Amino acid sequence: MWSCGPPALPDPRQLPFLLDLLEDDSPVVQEAVRRELARYGPQLPGEIGRLTPPLTASRRRAVESLLAEPQREWLADNWATWKARHGDKERLEAALSLLAEYQNGPALSDPLPPRLDRLAEEFRAGQGAGDPAALARYLFRRQGLHGAGTDYYSPQNSNLSAVIRRRRGLPISLCCIYILVGRRLGLDLQGCNFPGHFLASFRSPAGTLVFVDAFDGGRLLEENLILGMFPNPAPDLRRILETPASAEVIVARLLRNLVMAYQKAGQLERARLMQELLRGGS
To answer: What's the chain's average pLDDT?
Structure first.
């Protein structure tokens, strides 16, 4: 999450001494530390992760605060790259990986694709090829991925790396994990931009459209059951259910969630950044 810097990277052995200077309140020292940390570029999270003893929570927050502006610049500069991917699922994963890297911050190395890879590999090892229903049971029951409760509006519930790490998230985040793990297994899973509660969907061998409520333990629902929940369903409700949500639609919904989450958290600079990304044609 960095602009291009000098080709010569600083010595990682000096990083602990540099981090000690975070305790100095002098603006001159803080600016010097910021410049030096920025020189590590994308290697910084990995180098911090290798520190012994590990970075304390207070120092981690200090690094994140010091590098907040370079982080925002990095995401804004790199945001358009996901749109150049050819496949819909490839675009979705690229966008969500950028958001995860930004939300993880400069002090945590936890890229999204390897986490998705591990979930797919573990499922394959225990289930073989499997099917959409089996994958839903695996992720939302056996692995324990579930809907967020008291911290529903936390921005981290839209960070797929954090959702996998903490085992809780929003309906749309859980569905995206399901879709992207399924992609690795050759399963054709789609998103459904259902108002107020994002769903995933797949076609049964008989051709029936089946919906997955990832927030509710991977519960399987058929279209008629969903329509039956509404005494007078809107005319376009069936169309919404039957139209797969594109990467662009999913990313836009995630960004709107993040705008609200950051506003509720009082993180207005981050909220404005999400609004800018949304206006930029996500």
So the answer is: 91
